[in-house]
Automatic annotation (TrEMBL):
It holds the Pfam family Peptidase_M16. GO terms for molecular function: metal ion binding. Residues 1-126 form the Peptidase M16 N-terminal domain. This is Peptidase M16 N-terminal domain-containing protein. It comes from the Eukaryota. Residues 131-273 form the Peptidase M16 C-terminal domain. GO terms for cellular component: mitochondrion.
């Protein structure tokens, strides 16, 4: 489950879930999880997008059995103590203040395209800070973090060991009811105190339910160009050449953009340049 599964009242809950990874569970404290993972020389991180949240563990092979128990705790045995959730607000504020400009513009692009569902941001709206309760978090997890919606992937570990771990996960039943994506199109503007203008334009592409079309858009992205692969380098990609001829000696950055989701997708480009160049 990701931000797509939020409602207007619960916007930002996925962002809070991502931050809450590693807080007290039904079997371990925050200190215990952090201390043990560090002593084992491992790492445990949570990442999320619009349709999923992933808990990723890296550990040495001889410590893996013990480390897996902490991965299970963090992913499936959360308790969301109110005081710990409240203590996460400063980190939420910090992350909201440091969102990269390219991530912010892609967020706005989704908002213009879908309004809700896939249009909801990967980050919590400021109005939602301190508004999401422990009960709301637990209800969201119980509804969307179910066995039918879970996948366990591993490398460097025997299949029988990871299968045993997957079979012991404390996950509920049910498949949830995801609202189909509805592309609406439109325009969103955000005033920023910056010398650079950021512009993103996209059309609806194919979702992963149409594999061949989704693959074609992925190839088209690479053919159009995703920018130089060497810092301060150049590229002969058609998209970059076209903008370069209009920009002249002015600085700019442009990349093709492609995002494929379960039943919809976006394809377009992201441009960052001085306002005079972007307008041209």
């Amino acid at each position: 489950a990701g931000s797509r599964n939020e409602t207007y009242e619960t916007q930002g809950i996925t962002h809070l879930l991502r931050i809450a990874a590693g807080l007290t569970t039904s079997r371990a404290s925050t200190f215990g999880i952090t201390r043990n993972i560090q002593q084992m020389g491992g790492s445990l991180v949570a990442t999320s997008d619009r349709e999923s949240i992933a808990y990723t563990l890296q550990a040495t092979r001889d410590k893996l059995d013990k480390a897996l128990s902490f991965l299970e705790d963090v992913a499936t045995r959360q308790v969301f103590k109110p005081w710990e959730i409240s203590d996460s607000t400063p980190r939420l504020r910090y992350e909201l203040s440091t969102i990269p400009e390219n991530v912010r513009i892609i967020d706005l692009l989704h908002k213009a395209a879908y309004r809700e569902g896939l249009g909801y941001s990967l980050y919590s709206p400021k109005r939602q800070l301190d508004k999401i309760s422990s009960e709301t978090l637990q209800h969201f997890v119980n509804t969307w973090h179910t066995g039918a919606r879970c996948a366990v992937v591993a490398s460097g570990i025997p299949l029988n060991e990871i299968s045993a771990m997957a079979g012991s996960l404390n996950l509920g039943s049910g498949n949830g009811n995801t609202t189909p994506a509805k592309f609406g199109g439109g325009e969103v503007r955000k005033e920023r105190n910056s010398e650079l203008a950021s512009v993103a334009v996209a059309v609806e592409s194919s979702g992963l339910d149409k594999e061949k079309d989704a693959l074609a858009f992925a190839v088209l992205q690479q053919a159009a160009g995703t920018g130089p692969h060497v810092k301060w380098g150049n590229t002969t990609a058609p998209l970059h050449r076209a903008v370069g001829s209009a920009a002249g000696n002015d600085p700019f950055a442009i990349t093709a953009f492609n995002a494929s989701y379960t039943d919809s997708g976006l394809f377009g480009f992201l441009l960052q340049a001085p306002a005079s160049v972007a307008g041209a």
